[in-house]
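Sequence design from tokenized structure. All designs in this work follow the same two-part layout: the structure record, then the generated sequence. An example of the structure record is given first.
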């Protein structure tokens, strides 16, 4: 399945049809590396921060002047691993964070210029914040959790979390079928934990409180390996109204012993050694 983000961003972003020349990653005003390189995990990486702002300022108030900004905080590995995971960090096919920033800010700048020419009212600042964290790092498996929060106008912003799992030794992204051998059994197990978490009986209808098709429980497209178990993550609007926020469901490895693939089963048996 396509990553959740590639569906959600299509709904929340204003058209990004124009392109501008790409700047290099060493843009002096853009990025700075954290001094604290992460050395506890098997894969060595450093966390890097990035910030850019639009030259067009929103309507000033007596207290402050606001403008559109793009911020990011994300892990940087060696070249081989960076190539493997870049689609999970940059998300829409970009090669680096400069390109991601420029795509977002270009859309706002075009909107701002149109508003100014048309004299159609005040500008309202946008923002996008990307925070990509290493959720699991064993040397064999790597899980990234990319949290994106943004506002591009409207009643409220949007928050999306994208989980991505990799077999580092095999150099590939993991599908759910790489993690479990029987998705039907997984669904049954997950529903049991979901009902317990939501305080629903075994036979109680999901009703209008949840967005499950035909009142049938569904696995999240978004899943991640963690030290404790398999995490299923439903983003805002996937199974509940916006006001209820996202839903995360953690299924302990012990409950999945019958359905885990052999390779992931070894991970589950050695969780005490995971940093």
């Amino acid at each position: 399945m396509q990553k959740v983000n590639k569906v959600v961003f299509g709904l929340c972003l204003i058209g990004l049809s124009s392109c501008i020349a790409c700047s290099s990653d060493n843009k002096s005003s853009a990025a700075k590396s954290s001094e604290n390189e992460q050395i506890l995990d098997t894969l060595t990486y450093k966390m890097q921060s990035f910030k850019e702002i639009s030259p067009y300022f929103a309507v000033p108030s007596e207290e402050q002047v606001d403008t559109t900004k793009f911020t990011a905080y994300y892990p940087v590995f060696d070249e081989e691993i960076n190539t493997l995971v870049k689609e999970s960090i940059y998300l829409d096919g970009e090669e680096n964070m400069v390109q991601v920033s420029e795509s977002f800010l270009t859309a706002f700048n075009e909107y701002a210029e149109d508003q100014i020419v048309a004299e159609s009212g005040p500008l309202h600042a946008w923002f996008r914040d990307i925070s990509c964290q290493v959720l699991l790092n064993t040397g064999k498996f790597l899980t990234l959790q990319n949290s994106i929060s943004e506002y591009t106008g409207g009643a409220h912003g949007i928050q999306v979390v994208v989980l991505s799992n990799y077999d580092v030794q095999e150099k590939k992204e993991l599908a759910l079928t790489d993690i479990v051998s029987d998705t039907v059994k997984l669904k049954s197990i997950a529903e049991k934990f979901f009902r317990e978490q939501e305080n629903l009986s075994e036979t109680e209808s999901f009703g209008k409180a949840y967005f499950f098709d035909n009142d049938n429980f569904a696995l999240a497209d978004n899943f991640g390996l963690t030290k404790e178990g398999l995490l299923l993550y439903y983003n805002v609007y996937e199974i509940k109204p916006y006001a209820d926020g996202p839903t995360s469901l953690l299924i302990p490895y012990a409950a999945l012993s019958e359905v885990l693939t052999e390779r992931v089963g070894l991970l589950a048996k050695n969780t005490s050694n995971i940093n």
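The two ends are 30 Å apart (CA to CA). We note this feature because it recurs in several other targets discussed in the main text.
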